[in-house]
Amino acid sequence: MASSLESSLTLRDGLERYYLANPDVPRGQDIQVGWLHIPWQDLQKHDIMHVVTGYSTALKDELQLIGFLLTALTWKRPWYFYLQSLGVFAELLGRSLLGRRYGADYYWPWHVCRYYRLGIQQGLRVRKKIDAYLDPELMMDRSLTSLRQDYGIRNAGAWD
């Protein structure tokens, strides 16, 4: 059962906690990743999904989140959303197969696949697909509990 604080926590509140815990996450600006330009609005949606799913920014949770996003969003979305999910998975799997770390962490190839698969499985179980073009401002004052219930999202617990 959710505590009264947890059930009253809005998406805006959860996002603020997320940014306080991750001060190096770009906020309010586009970024360039290699040749790929990622608009701020899409970065914000990624951050919002961290908060709604409760996935942390640890590598295993990032793998689960990108797997979740592959299957939980409506299929009509910007093309680079697919590239992000599949590309990041392929990059991490490739590093793992070559025995390379990602930052301080090393994950065996089967762990990379397992965490990604867990996210995909959770995304397949959502009650309602998430509209990739939904305006985040329309959801900011909704409680995280109600958003999770509406979509059928299991909370991993990192932000509330």
Any overview of this molecule?
With 160 residues, the chain is mainly alpha-helical. It has one domain (4-151). It is built from 7 helices and 2 strands. A two-stranded antiparallel sheet has the order 1-2. A hairpin with a 2-residue loop joins strand 1 (31-33) and strand 2. Helix 4 runs parallel beside helix 6 and helix 5 packs antiparallel against helix 6 (109-124). The relative contact order is 0.20. The mean pLDDT is 90.
Low-confidence stretches: none
How many DSSP-defined strands?
2
Structural class: mainly alpha
- The rounded Rg comes to 15 Å
User: Could you state the order of secondary-structure elements as H and E?
Assistant: HHEEHHHHH
What's the number of structural domains? 1
| Helix count, DSSP H or I runs of 4 or more residues | 7
User: What is the topology, as strand order, of the major beta sheet?
Assistant: 1-2
- Ends apart, CA distance between termini: 13 Å
Q: How big a fraction of the residues is strand? A: under 5%
Question: What general form does the structure show?
Answer: globular
Q: How much is the average pLDDT?
A: 90
Q: Top keywords for this entry?
A:
two-stranded antiparallel sheet, single chain, mainly alpha, 160 residues
